[in-house]
Design a protein that fits this description.
Shape: globular
Number of domains: 1
Largest sheet: 12 strands, antiparallel
Oligomer: single chain
Strand content: 35-45%
CATH topology: Beta-galactosidase, Chain A, domain 5
Number of strands: 22
Distance between the termini: 26 Å
Order of helices and strands: EEEEEEEEEEEEEEEEEEHEEEEH
Helix content: under 10%
């Protein structure tokens, strides 16, 4: 039996400095020419669950920010100057104790430095991703680590609310449900149940949609052709979170769907790092109907 994943340099879509991590069950690819990014994720020999933008593959050094696809490290709240800092340069790749560490150069215009640490389980379809952001400026500043995953088109995004209760037992609110100016609750891509929020990615629907919420046990899932991707992390109740208190956001447009987790906002000293940890899992042959009963049966046990 394989005792630890293999980590080897590889080419990918025109980039010659990428790194593949594989354990015989799942594989992922981290870019070294730009980033840091996880640009490919899926079962060995299977589909890429992450969206790639073909016209942006194999390129680097652009004067504007490129979405490219995959999982990336960002900062919140969203700001056109700070959040969209360029990550179009080569990153340093280090391998330490079975983990791949991708460290970007400091973004001088923004004053931050980003790093992703990726650890894959020895054989299971499990990955730990640590998103780290350093205050590379001279002054204290406030931000949160933000971890968007750009999912391949055609699937369905799912997230769960905190445990529900009754009016008789719980009189105070339990969590925010946050809208953007373009959020349209009548859009047919949304499905709401008592316990879950579901969003269909649809290439024919051109209007973007987004909703955020808070859950101490934050998770988001994406179901595509029977493959289910789940990302989870434990949010800190009582701490301030971006965007009216969101620990999770889900977004879609005609190209893709994003599952986004947010760390708490904090005042970060010069030179200090902020760290945000996600746990990923993949499962095969999953089918779900959009009811509480069926999602309780199919998705809940996989969390």
């Amino acid at each position: 039996m394989q005792t630890q994943p293999t980590i080897e340099r590889t080419d990918y879509c025109g980039w010659t400095n990428c790194w593949k991590i594989a354990n015989g069950t799942i594989e992922l690819i981290v870019t070294g020419d730009v980033g840091p990014r996880v640009i490919w994720l899926g079962f060995a020999g299977g589909q890429n669950l992450f969206k790639n933008f073909p016209e942006q593959m194999g390129r680097s050094g652009e004067a504007e920010w490129m979405i490219r696809g995959g999982a990336r490290c960002w900062i919140a709240p969203e700001d056109r100057a700070a959040t969209y800092g360029l990550d179009n340069s080569p990153v340093r790749i280090d391998i330490e104790n079975g983990a791949l560490i991708a460290t970007a150069p400091a973004e001088e215009a923004v004053g931050v430095q980003k790093q992703m640490i990726v650890r894959m389980a020895a054989a299971a379809a499990r990955v730990e991703v640590v998103y780290r952001v350093r205050n590379a400026g001279l002054l204290y500043t406030e931000f949160a680590a933000w971890a968007p995953c750009v999912m391949a088109p055609g699937g369905v995004g799912i997230t769960g609310f905190p445990p529900r209760g009754t009016h008789e037992d719980i009189l105070t609110p339990t969590n925010p449900l946050v809208m953007w100016a373009y959020t349209d609750l009548s859009d047919k891509r949304w499905t709401y149940t008592k316990k879950y929020l579901i969003l269909q990615q649809d290439a024919a629907a051109t209007a973007p949609q987004k909703i955020g919420h808070f859950n101490p046990k934050t998770w988001g899932a994406y179901l595509l052709n029977g493959d289910l991707f789940i990302k989870r992390y434990d949010a800190a109740a009582g701490k301030p979170y971006p965007d009216y208190g969101c620990s999770f956001q889900i977004f879609t447009n005609k190209d893709m769907l994003e599952l986004e987790t947010m760390g708490p906002l904090g005042r970060v000293a010069p030179g200090a790092w902020v760290e945000h940890v996600e746990h990923w899992s993949l499962d095969r042959d999953v089918a779900a109907a959009w009811t509480d009963e069926d999602l309780d049966r199919t998705i809940l046990p996989l969390l």
